[in-house]
Amino acid sequence: MAEQRRDGRDVGDSAPEATTAEERAVPDAVPDEKARAWAALVATARRTVADGLVVGTSGNVSVRVGDTVLVTPSGVPYKRLAPADIVGVDLTGRQVLGTLTPTSELPMHLAVYRATDARAVVHTHAVHATAVSTLVRELPLIHYMAADLGGPVRVAPYATYGTPELAENTLQALTDRTACLLQNHGTIAYGTTLDQAYDRTAQLEWMCRVWLTASALPGLSPTLLTETQVNQAGERLRGYGQQQR
C-alpha cells in the first residue's frame, strides 16, 4: 500500500520523481541543527537495514533536538528518504515539520523521551533478539556487556504495535535500563546520541545471538554470570576507552 503525505499526495514506490532522493533539498524553514540531525537519523536508519537489524521498513529511528523529535516516516523505504522528507513532532505528538505521516510507533518513542534523558531511540525487529523475546522474560546474563545496558535485559510483555499499552509496557521494562526486548516483536534502545542508541541495539542483538548459539547444543547449558559479576564489569566499563584529559 502506498504511503501518503499529509497533503494527500501519493509517495508510493512507483511514483515518478523529478529529482533523486539525494537532490531534494531540505526546506528553507528548517534550522541547520535539525537538518543535520535529520541527515544523521536517515544514515542510522539505513544502517539498520544494511546490518540486518530490520527488513524493509519494519523498524524506526528518532532523535530529539530541543523539544522537537525527528522520526522516520511510516512505510517509506529508508533508501528513498531525502532532506525534504524531514518529519518532526513535539513531545505531545503534534506534527511540526514535514508532510509525511510519522512512524506508527511514535507513542513508544515519545514515551521514552518523556520518561528518560534519551536524545535518540532505535527500534528494530532484529532476528536473534526477537527470537529470544519469545522464549524468556529476561535475557540470561550470557555476557558482561549487559552492564552497558543497565543490567539484565527485560522483555516487555506483548501488546499491539503503535498502542499506548505497548508504550507503557516498554517503559516498565526500561526502568533503570537503556534497552529492552519487546515480546514477539523486537528491540528498543536509547542513548544520548544516535551512535550510542545504535551501538546498544547492536550489542543487544549480539548478546541474544550468543545466548541462542550456546543454548543450541544438546545436553549442555551455557555458563551464566551473576548480577554481581555484571555490576563489577559495569564499574570497569565506566572507565573504558580514551578518557578526556
Layout: helices, strands, pairs:
Elements: H1 32-50, E1 60-65, E2 68-71, E3 88-90, E4 95-97, H2 106-115, E5 120-124, H3 127-133, E6 155-156, H4 164-173, E7 179-182, E8 186-191, H5 194-215, H6 227-237
Parallel strand pairs: 6-7
Antiparallel strand pairs: 1-2, 1-5, 2-3, 3-4, 5-8, 7-8
Helix pairs in contact: 2-4, 3-5
Jot down its keywords.
single chain, 245 residues, alpha+beta, 8-stranded mixed sheet, 6 helices, disordered N terminus
3D structure, described in words:
This protein is of the alpha+beta class. Helix content is 32%, strand content 13%. Strand 3 (88-90) and strand 4 form a beta hairpin. The N and C termini lie far apart (54 Å). Residues 1-19 have low confidence and may be disordered.
How would you summarize what this structure contains?
This protein has 245 residues and is an alpha+beta fold. The chain has helices spanning 32-50, 106-115, 127-133, 164-173, 194-215, 227-237; strands at 60-65, 68-71, 88-90, 95-97, 120-124, 155-156, 179-182, 186-191.
